[in-house]
Amino acid sequence: MTKFLIKNLSIIFFIFVPIFFLWHPNWLGFLGVQPYWPLFWLLPWSMINGSIKGLIFGLFLGLILDSLTIDSDFTQIPGLILCGFLFGRIKLHRDNLLGHFRFGLICSFGSFLCGTIYFLQILFNNFSDSTYLLFIPSLQNILAEVFLTGFFAPLICSQILRMFKFSRRKVY
Amino acid sequence: MIDVRRISNSRWWHNKKNWILFGIFLFLVFVRISKGSIYKDFYYFISKPFWPGEFQKEVILKSLNQESLINLSLLKKDNIRLREILSLQESSNNDNISATVISRKTGSWWRQIILNKGSKDGVEIGDSVIGPGGLLGRVNNTSLFTSSVTLLTSPESKVGVWVDRIQINGLLVGIGNDYPNLILYSKNAELKVGDFVSSSPASSLLPPNIPIGIVQSIDEPFKAKKMAKISLLAKPQAIDWVQILKVKI
Q1: Are residues B69 and B33 in the same domain?
Q2: Cβ-based contacts of B112 with chain A (< 8 Å)
Q3: Interchain contact B235–A (C-beta under 8 A)
Q4: Are residues B43 and B107 in the same domain?
Q5: Does the ipTM surpass 0.90?
Q6: Same domain, yes or no, for B42 and B111?
Q7: Who contacts B177 (Cβ-Cβ below 8 Å, separation ≥6)?
Q8: Which partner from A71, B29, B37, B205 sits 20 to 30 angstroms from B72, CA to CA?
Q9: Domain count of the fold of chain B
């Protein structure tokens, strides 16, 4: 059982991503916005398994998260696919300290990408005279999400990456 | 010589009692001039524990509450009767379902709450959800045990509302922050800050006359439209218990 759990650690973590997404604790937020949880899983996964697997699991994550949110007109899939693909092209860094901070920057960039794509969808879908009203709250959402994701990424991603590596080492 | 010294010692200003009496006299003059304000203030502090006010206030408030409840009940009955005559939509307390908020996303892009009652409990898509204060949103999706509610602040939310003071219908549109926009399709509508907004009596989606919010600020009229920011009465970020109203269409 333990072997099975260790072997499938990344998949178990994958199952918990939507739970975190739904959890949405207020005390962890900033301006009512939460960090973009799926990136914390997607970055280590893609770094270890490469672009193609990153892309596929980006799609899977997007599908699950879209099913949890009720905005049927907008989707998170394009942003997560793009992030999964880009994250897969990043090489693992030997310098641990630099690596930690790099996680923060990469996740901030990923969050910005996903947020912008989502905002563009809302913009095109609600295009009217009052579209300008959406700009300020959306910009605030994107910036708060970028800040929080980048803030927590060094801590969370480095631990998850370490666990994923450990899980692979046990298997092979 | 000794006698002379004694005489000088017996002057009135050498007597302490006289000074005390003079002090009291000055104090009384001050009291007179201030029209007894010191006494009154002193009495205020002394008598404070014995005031009848606190208890009396409770009694009066209780009576007022009872009076309001009776009035409300009478008005409700009257309203139901009139709505029946006009064949308008009605809501009944018997169809309410109480539910707990098990997940909330009140910031960011997704403005939704998930409740612990689903299709098993009779929740249906389109049901209205109210919390302390007023309307929160509408059920958008149900599973067997849960239901997802689109909040009024979500960019996907668009509901018809009623501004009672100027007797006009409008559209409440979420823009992704905590203050949804009220759009009135009349440039000359005399909307004012502080106006009360409720669900439209003519709406086919929502039960009538549910409190929604208060006009917080008004934008300049634009292309025959008047827009205003609405401060919602029900705060989804703080509410744990809600009621699901089943809509009879």
Answers
A1: no
A2: 69-70
A3: no
A4: no
A5: no
A6: no
A7: A136, A137, A140, B153
A8: B205
A9: 3
